[in-house]
Amino acid sequence: MFFERPDAGETAVLVHVDFSDEQAREDPGEFLELVRSAGAEPATLLTASRQRPDPRTFIGSGKLDELKALLGAHQAELVIFNHGLGPSQERNLERELKCRVLDRTGLILDIFAQRARTHEGKLQVELAQLEYMSTRLVRGWTHLERQKGGIGLRGPGETQLETDRRLLRGRIKAIHKRLDKVRSQREQNRRARSRAEIQSVSLVGYTNAGKSTLFNVLTDAKVYAADQLFATLDPTLRRLEIDDVGPIVMADTVGFIRHLPHKLVEAFQATLQEAAEASLLIHVIDAADPDRELNVQQVDSVLKEIGADSVPVLKVMNKIDRLDSAPRIERDGQGRPEVVWLSAREGQGLDLLHQALSERLADDVIGFSLTLAPEQGKLRAGLHELNAVREERFDEQGRSVLDVRLPRRDFNQLMAQLGERADTYLPKALQEPGEW
């Protein structure tokens, strides 16, 4: 990675400021989880209250003196802020504190750099890091003067900073091209699935809500799952069979977080596009989290930013084992499944989720009985191949009596392949008006 941080395990002093503006507030508990996920060792937390950030040092001179004392007392070499810092604020703090300063965005980028495993994931993280660091390069090059040549070659030239920025722009442009290629490949795959009429479902939700655990138990995948923030970074696709629907493609995506930096959303556009193009979103929510409503709002905000706010949503309230609650389905006014309560870790309520997915994804499912003569074996075999036969028995004349249930679309396609009319076999109540 271009801008990877040093090895983890550094002792850090944490800084959290409470602002009067509710929208600007961050969660100190979540901040602590982020720091631990990055591998740092939190020594102490310095808290402050302000109306607005100090333009020079973010926290003001009094708290700056306290911060210096805490650094000396704990022999810490790193300060991490639970807020976004401007480039000049970061430089001023490092000059005053004589140590490295990291803000919330830099901390999240560090975690992403550790978690990325695929080529695409590493490209996305590097792009976000380069975009973030491009405004902060000046702090590393302030001691360098303009480059000068010998006699006849003197002139203003370009500073080392300008050279570095030019190289950065070149690298950013190259990564954008490679990610555009990835995005194009994903789009081709989605078009192929669309032509095959395979529906896709994307898991979305706040980080550490249990998406990967649910994904693993549903699809028998082996995606890394842990009780930590951003355990999953790289997208994973798996095939899943759903009753009355057939095969679907399920995608596990990166978790969202409050005030997710805009550059990260841009960098992960290729991955998040899976959610925007899905037939259905499963919004996984930690039912035991006291801030779950705020987390839901944050996820909705990111979905709107990536253009996925119009995709149908099925909410899953996960971790009910921590609430001593029973698995259940909540339905809307039309009787459609709206919320499924379950525990992915304990395997409770998974059958209800399958039922809800079947109801939400199945379009115009028909069920009827069919009597077939021995010479109609092709139709019988086709229905068995579609897994549409619920029960089969034989009458006294040796004919097959099938109880079938399948999407109308699949039945019409099978009839077209056999060169027969669908209304020949359907009861009148199931025939479409144009077939009468």
TrEMBL record:
InterPro entries, per the entry: EFG_III/V, G_HFLX_dom, GTP-bd, GTP-bd_M, GTPase_HflX, GTPase_HflX_N, GTPase_HflX_N_sf, HflX_C
A Pfam family this chain is assigned to: GTP-bdg_M
This protein's UniProt keywords: Cytoplasm, GTP-binding, Magnesium, Metal-binding, Nucleotide-binding
Domain Hflx-type G: 199-365
Subcellular location: Cytoplasm
Function: GTPase that associates with the 50S ribosomal subunit and may have a role during protein synthesis or ribosome biogenesis.
Subunit architecture: Monomer. Associates with the 50S ribosomal subunit.
PANTHER family: GTP-BINDING PROTEIN 6-RELATED, GTP-BINDING PROTEIN HFLX
UniProt family annotation: Belongs to the TRAFAC class OBG-HflX-like GTPase superfamily. HflX GTPase family.
HAMAP family found in the cross-reference section: GTPase_HflX (MF_00900)
Protein name: GTPase HflX
